[in-house]
Amino acid sequence: MRNNYLRWLMKSRKITILFFTVVYIGFLYTPYLENNSFLYDYQNYLYTRSLSIGVGMSVFLAFALPIFLFSYMHRKRSVDVYLALPISRRQQLFSSAFFAWLLAYGWFALGTLMIWILKGNVSMDLLGHWLRIQPWMMFSLAVLIFVTAAFYMSANNVFDGIVMVIAYYVVPVFITLVFQLFINDMIAGQYYSGTFSNIGKWFSPVFMAVSNSLSLLGNDDPLFSWAYFWLLAVYGLLAVVALHFSFIRRKSERAEQISDSFFAYPFVINIYAALILLVYGFTVVSGTSQDMILFYMLLFFIYIIASFIYRRSLKISWRPIALFLGMAAITLGFSFIGWKTQGFGLSYAYRLDTNRYLTYHYTAEVDAKNLGAWFEVDDGEDGDDSQREVNVQFTLVIPTDQLQEKQEIVSLMESIRKDSIRAFYEKKEPTRYYAYLNVCSKMREEDLDYDGYGYPLSRLLSEEELKKIAKYCDVEVSDFTALETEEMPLEQYLGEHPLRKNS
Q1: Can you give the pTM of this predicted structure?
Q2: pLDDT tens digits, residue range 261-284?
Q3: Are 87 and 38 part of one and the same domain?
Q4: 352 vs 358: CA distance, rounded Å
Q5: Residue 165 lies in a domain
């Protein structure tokens, strides 16, 4: 490939290059203006901060530079001039992308190395981090530049192009929101499960690029995700294919026209409307929505305004009206089916033998005189304060190879879990007093409870049931209302606590 166009870009953008070089280095130096000399490994801390700032600034440049370099395709006065140059569109595309990459990555590599040389007193381990992150920054910034260019070129004018870039980069946030609300509002017991809650990150090239970059800057190599690498490679390939149609084969007449490409306003407006309607559908069927009709009318009004902006016309067409009504009906129907099928069956999909250990963690604030009863506030005027709440909690860990021999206790715990699931879909309000059951399976007994199921309890374990559980694990009773917190085993509490004796 001839480099005439690339050399021209470098010569014509000298002032821009010099300006951003100074700004970039200046930002990299900002951590050294802080007065944190009291920190351990002060110089290492500052250099790590500087590297992190460099990652963020280069990612931002991968977002901004394609907009700056390809804007001529959106202007009538410039598009014909550029396309008349004795340089193929393919050369223009890849030369501009390479120029953007040189700036975004070059400033990171040279800027952070300059900080290393100037400041010194930084451990060789951090220099190793600097070397280790270079291949990833080379790759991820190249992908982000092509992806941004593809989003930008889906439009036909500068303003619409910027809107498209922002809209596409923000949509993973909405996807994450949809999944999180689906988990919280539609699936009983999935309150802190990480299986689907962050699925939007798989649609975000920016998140994947930054996540792996920060992992390489730390000491935890396993945090680097090869899945992110392969996904970014796929996104980069798709972006190049999209640019073949939206840039190389682009008609110059599209400049400053309505952005009517399928992947411009028509797709963006409808995908955002569908996601918002889906979220609201969850709240409608779960009984947490208010002013349903008002919300749909408001969203319809916003949708029509967005259609006006897209078409640059106030003319009302039957197509957006029909499309909105269709999306509203489909999303509401999907939500209704999801509720009636108890989260499409996911509420009962939990396997007890997923890993080597099954863990039940029970905690409840109960009546001090009856550990199987809800604590009730005494509003009487006799001043009797003998009726107080206490906290009962235990963590029951059962090896999965012992599930059969401990079937009695497993069945007991599963019964209150299923009672809570039924109460959830019957829309019964949980007690205003804290009572919760967490269920998870772990590979090792000492592992933290990351992925699991959490249930606000619809009923409490009786004292007889607690006595059964005490045969398999420690059941602790804590009185937090005393001057000093008292914590004792269940058997001791039932036999010695003053509140028990008085009852």
Answers
A1: 0.82
A2: 889 999 999 999 999 999 999 989
A3: yes
A4: 6
A5: no
